[in-house]
Amino acid sequence: MKRILGIGSTLVDILSQIPNEDVLHQLNLPKGSMTYVKIEDAVKIGEQLARQYGSQRAAGDSAANTMSGLARLGAQSGFLTKMGKDEMGDFFTNEMTRTGVEMLALKSDTPTGRVIAMVTPDGERTFATCLGASIELSPDDIKPELFDGWDIFYIEGYLVANPNMLRKAISTAKDKGLKIAIDLASYNVVEESHDFLLELINDYVDIVFANEQEALALTGMQPEEALHYLAERCEIAVVKIGAKGALIQHGDQLVTIGPLKADVVDTTGAGDMWAAGFLAGLVKNEPLEKCGKMGAIVAANIIEVIGAKMDETRWEKIHAAIAKL
Q: Sign (positive/negative) of CA torsion 190, 186, 318, 64?
């Protein structure tokens, strides 16, 4: 079985359910977006929300969620990151290793990053993110030997905030023979780093995951046209279209994945888990349609719970559903 190494930020998610969008307006945070904030602001916002609405925490970050999901689905996954020498870093490491992820963690004196995740009643999530020590991951930290024994290198779009490191990591992994997969992460990230992301996709990427908004921001096209555009530039292109399902293209092969019914509570982690399900099928050499259905099953389950983590009962339900495919 092929092994997948993800790279991303060590971020502890601190999640609160908020009663309405007024809270977001007061904090000057666009609904559905990811906004970078200073550590002191992240602490202040987190404490304020916890007092008013309560909160819970979990090991977060987009790529980390995907690697954790892969491990729970029986795939071999690892996570390359940089974290602080603090309790938040220890919490993150323990949560990841508990799910079976191999941690490749570099350490820093800077505090571990955190994400304040706010969920509105419609299930939409908005993030205030402080990268902390993660932003210190530098080109000098990227050594060729880090990629020994891995087959696929999974990138989250949020890493465009650290472009020199990201370019070094992707080019080094490619030189070592790894396939490159990227999830575009957020429409506002795509808008801010449009040209850089297109450069990476054209020069390095083999598998690209995008949702409808991200695909539009990158290509200016609607889902089907965006899918064809991306498929001309990489081996496998995926455009997720929310409640309508997903589109997959590999060469001339086009696959449509229908939607699954779900009681939406919180969309946090939906894209991360879709990628986990899809890649878990891919490393087991499953057909594209089954890979897509696996992604849909995991994503449909994660949006029925608060946060980007699921309990054992939920994972048993997922495994049972996949076994029926």
A: positive
